[in-house]
Design a protein that fits this description.
Blueprint (H helix, E strand, L loop, with lengths): L6 H12 L10 E5 L4 E8 L5 E11 L9 E8 L10 E8 L12 H17 L13 H16 L4 H7 L9 H7 L1
């Protein structure tokens, strides 16, 4: 899978930018690969699907059954209410790096930052977690930066234009254009 920057670098920047949870010192945000994530759950069934007499704790895949071979931006949140999870804090998906057709997109820090800041902005509009805004950046500069990152995240959502944007596509000059040059 192609990567624009190493996942370790993205996670390091996320930690530096958004910090750790005060209760357990875990990073508030991280990028992970869907196939590598497992969690301990209390379950009534075996791996083969047979029902157990008593529930038992099992390590089960977190995303494998519905997100295949993609990177996911996760947020650390408290587990509330009745649940089959054993931990009191859990990483939950905030963004899956894929286009609208479900095709793989490589993760990158600026995209993660935009997603996290957008989430904080929505939360701050609800009246909590107000995020500091840099007064030295004009509204136009911020909007231009957002548009640039959105273009990198989404392109115009076709395989051809994405391939051209990432430098893996090939263009061929039309016959009619060649005649105009001579």
């Amino acid at each position: 899978m192609e990567l624009r920057e190493p996942i370790e670098d993205i996670n390091k920047k996320l930690l530096e930018e958004f910090g750790r949870d005060l209760s357990n010192s875990k990073p508030r945000f991280r990028v992970v690969f869907s196939e590598d994530q497992y969690e301990k759950r209390l379950t009534n069934c075996t791996d083969e699907g047979f029902e157990l007499i008593r529930p038992e704790v099992r390590t089960l895949p977190k995303y494998k059954q519905y997100v295949r071979e993609k990177y996911i931006l996760e947020r650390l949140v408290p587990v509330t209410g009745e649940t089959d999870l054993l931990d009191k804090m859990s990483y939950e998906p905030l963004w899956v790096f894929q286009d609208k057709n479900g095709n793989y997109l490589p993760p990158f820090f600026e995209g993660c930052r935009l997603i996290v800041e957008s989430m904080y902005e929505k939360v701050s509009n609800a009246g909590s977690f107000k995020r500091y805004k840099d007064e030295n950046v004009s509204k136009e500069e911020r909007l231009a930066h957002i548009m640039k990152v959105e273009q990198e995240l989404f392109g115009n959502e076709t395989d051809v234009t994405d391939a051209l944007a990432y430098g893996t596509g090939v263009t061929v000059q039309k016959e009619s254009e060649r005649k105009l040059i001579h």
